[in-house]
Automatic annotation (TrEMBL):
<protein>
    <submittedName>
        <fullName>ABC transporter ATP-binding protein YtrB</fullName>
    </submittedName>
</protein>
<feature type="domain" description="ABC transporter">
    <location>
        <begin position="2"/>
        <end position="230"/>
    </location>
</feature>
<dbReference type="InterPro" id="IPR017871">
    <property type="entry name" value="ABC_transporter-like_CS"/>
</dbReference>
<keyword id="KW-0547">Nucleotide-binding</keyword>
<dbReference type="GO" id="GO:0005524">
    <property type="term" value="F:ATP binding"/>
</dbReference>
<dbReference type="InterPro" id="IPR003593">
    <property type="entry name" value="AAA+_ATPase"/>
</dbReference>
<keyword id="KW-0067">ATP-binding</keyword>
<dbReference type="InterPro" id="IPR051782">
    <property type="entry name" value="ABC_Transporter_VariousFunc"/>
</dbReference>
<dbReference type="Pfam" id="PF00005">
    <property type="entry name" value="ABC_tran"/>
</dbReference>
<keyword id="KW-0813">Transport</keyword>
<dbReference type="InterPro" id="IPR027417">
    <property type="entry name" value="P-loop_NTPase"/>
</dbReference>
<dbReference type="InterPro" id="IPR003439">
    <property type="entry name" value="ABC_transporter-like_ATP-bd"/>
</dbReference>
<dbReference type="GO" id="GO:0016887">
    <property type="term" value="F:ATP hydrolysis activity"/>
</dbReference>
C-alpha cells in the first residue's frame, strides 16, 4: 500500500513540551483522523509537516518526497484548511482568488467557481463579512481548486453547526473516492471522524498512543460496566483505566474477549466511542 504521508521518529523540543519521536503513515486514498487533547502535539505535528517550524530530528515524507528538500513541489500538491482565517479581511473573495491562483500550477477557476456556487458564497463579499462557517467553506474551496492530492485540515469544523459539518464531511468523503487523494484531519469532534475516517492516530503528551484502522480500534476496545463489588486491586489491572462512583464502575479495555470470558454475566460490555477511548486514556482512573 502506497503512503501519501510518512512520519518517522519525528522529534521537536520546546522548553515545556517535547514531541517524542513519533511515527505514523497515511496511505493514499484514505482519511486519517488526528486526535488528542489540547497541548498533545497535534498543531506542532501539522506545522512540522508544513515546514513552518524546524524539527530537531526525524523524517517527514509527502508523496515520497522529503518535505524540506521538495517543499515547493509538495505545497503545490497540498490543500490546507485551518481553524482560523489567514486571508486579508478587507479583500473580497474574488480578489483573494486572483492573489492565490498564480501559486498553483493546477489551479482551476471552474472548480473554484463550482464550490463558491455550491457553498452559496458571494465572490464580491469581503472576508470580514463572512461567518466562521462561510470562512471555512471559502478555505475549503481554495484547498480543492488546484487538484490537491493531500488535504490537511486543522480543526476545520470547530464552531460549525451540524449541517455545515455534515456538508464538509460529505465533500471529503467524495474526494477520496478515486483512491488517489487523502485527507489528514485534526479535530476535537470525534463524532465527525467516526462517520468518515479510515484511520485514527491518537497523540497524547507528545507521544503516539496508537495509529490504526478505525474499525480495528472500535472492534478491539470495549467499555465495561459493572458493580463495584467485583472490583479489587488485583483485577483493576485488567483494565486500561477505571472510573468509579457509588453506583458502579465504568472501565476501558483492549482485551474484550478476555474480559467477556473472565467476568461473564457480571459485567456489561459496550462499544465505546472515540471520545470514550480518549477520555479514559488521557484522564485515567477516577473515583468519586
Amino acid at each position: 500500500m502506497e503512503n501519501i504521508l510518512e512520519i518517522k521518529n519525528l522529534r521537536k523540543e520546546y522548553k515545556n513540551f517535547v514531541l517524542k519521536d513519533i511515527n505514523f503513515n497515511l496511505p493514499k486514498g484514505y482519511i486519517m483522523g488526528f486526535i488528542g487533547p489540547n497541548g498533545a502535539g497535534k498543531s506542532t505535528t501539522i506545522k512540522l509537516i508544513m515546514n513552518l517550524i524546524k524539527k530537531n530530528s526525524g523524517e517527514i515524507k509527502v508523496f515520497g518526497l522529503d518535505n524540506i528538500k521538495h517543499e515547493k513541489e509538495i505545497k503545490n500538491r497540498i490543500g490546507f484548511v485551518y481553524d482560523e482565517n489567514y486571508y486579508y479581511e478587507d479583500l473580497k473573495i474574488n480578489e483573494i482568488r486572483k492573489i492565490i491562483k498564480p501559486f498553483y500550477s493546477n489551479w482551476s477557476d471552474d472548480t473554484f467557481n463550482k464550490y463558491i456556487k455550491d457553498f452559496n458564497l458571494d465572490v464580491n463579499a469581503k472576508v470580514k463579512t463572512l461567518s466562521k462557517g462561510m470562512k471555512t467553506k471559502f478555505s475549503l474551496a481554495v484547498a480543492l481548486s488546484h487538484n490537491a492530492e493531500l488535504i490537511i485540515m486543522d480543526e476545520p469544523t470547530a464552531g460549525l453547526d451540524p449541517i455545515f459539518r455534515r456538508e464538509i464531511l460529505d465533500i471529503l468523503y467524495d474526494l477520496i473516492q478515486n483512491e488517489e487523494k487523502s485527507v489528514f484531519f485534526s479535530t476535537h469532534i470525534t463524532t465527525d471522524l467516526e462517520k468518515i475516517a479510515d484511520y485514527i492516530t491518537f497523540i497524547n503528551d507528545g507521544e503516539i498512543v496508537f495509529s490504526k484502522e478505525k474499525d480495528d480500534i472500535m472492534e478491539n476496545y470495549a467499555l465495561i460496566k459493572g458493580s463495584n463489588d467485583i472490583l479489587n486491586e488485583e483485577n483493576k489491572k485488567d483494565f486500561i483505566a477505571v472510573r468509579k462512583n457509588r453506583f458502579g464502575f465504568e472501565a476501558l479495555t483492549d482485551k474484550k474477549e478476555f474480559i467477556a470470558k473472565k467476568y461473564k454475566d457480571d459485567v456489561i460490555i459496550e462499544r465505546p466511542t472515540l471520545e470514550d477511548i480518549m477520555l479514559f486514556i488521557v484522564k485515567g482512573d477516577k473515583y468519586v
